[in-house]
Amino acid sequence: MNIQLDKLKFDDSGLIPAIVQDAQSLEVLTLAYMNADSLAHTIETGQTWFWSRSRNELWHKGATSGNTQRVVDIVPDCDGDALVVLVEPAGPACHTGARSCFVSSVNESRSLGVLLAQLYRLVEDRQEKRPPDSYTTYLFEQGLDKILKKLGEESTETIVAAKNDSTQALVAEVSDLLYHLVVLLVARGVSLEQIHEELVKRRGAAE
């Protein structure tokens, strides 16, 4: 995090708005406020700290709930009077228990990035907890060779579906393929953020 603190513009109350986004899906999780102290705590600890305007005190996100946010990066806007804080959330961002303070059924259903990030975390949870009667648990227990075999099968089925006339069949097979790709990424410890960074680099090279 390369932040020029002297370039930031805090308001008359010594605050600056901080837009917190999921580093993988870029979903907006919440809007909070930071002052110089909370920003310093955030940089030092690698977790989000904010200034509570209602309680008039510093607060560490997740200190009591456990829903902490690991900071990946902090990016000021062009004027230096607002921040985007990219995080890896360990739980819901909203006090209501919702993943985001800006949850919308329309946005949830249309944002592929958000759904992939949710799927990735669900698969991570299955890998760690191994609940019985879970297909994902079965794949992890069978090991990498089984995951690769299923990925190959789904790739073939996707190709076959693409040669047929049914759009719905193709959609279904691509969805199965994406799921098994996510399982492979989790099994190999590759994050969606790493894929995103690689795609950004390739886009830049192609322009």
Describe this structure in words.
The protein folds into two domains: 5-89, Ubiquitin-like (UB roll) (Roll); 105-206, Helix Hairpins, CATH 1.10.287. The protein starts with 15 loop residues before the first strand and ends with a helix. A hairpin with a 6-residue loop joins strand 5 (69-76) and strand 6. The strands form two sheets. Strands 2-1-6-5 form a four-stranded mixed β-sheet, covered by helices on one side. It has a two-stranded antiparallel sheet with strand order 3-4. The chain has helices at residues 36-45, 105-110, 112-129, 135-142, 144-163, 167-188, 192-206; strands at residues 16-22, 28-34, 49-52, 57-60, 69-76, 83-89. By secondary structure, it is α+β, with helices and mostly antiparallel strands. Helix 3 packs across helix 6 (167-188).
Summary tags:
207 residues, alpha+beta, Ubiquitin-like (UB roll), Helix Hairpins, 4-stranded mixed sheet, two-stranded antiparallel sheet, 6 strands
Give the helices and strands, then pairings:
Elements (H helix, E strand, L loop, with lengths): L15 E7 L5 E7 L1 H10 L3 E4 L4 E4 L8 E8 L6 E7 L15 H6 L1 H18 L5 H8 L1 H20 L3 H22 L3 H15 L1
Give, in order, the helices and strands.
EEHEEEEHHHHHH
What is the CATH level 1 assignment of the largest domain? Mainly Alpha
Portion of residues in beta strands equals 15-25%
Gyration radius, rounded: 20 Å
Contiguous helical run count: 7
Parts with pLDDT < 50 across at least 5 consecutive residues: none
CATH T-level fold name of the largest domain? Helix Hairpins
Overall SS class: alpha+beta
CATH superfamily membership of the largest domain? MazG-like
Q: What is the count of distinct domains?
A: 2
Largest sheet: 4 strands, mixed
Query: Could you tell me the number of beta strands?
Result: 6
Give the overall average pLDDT: 90
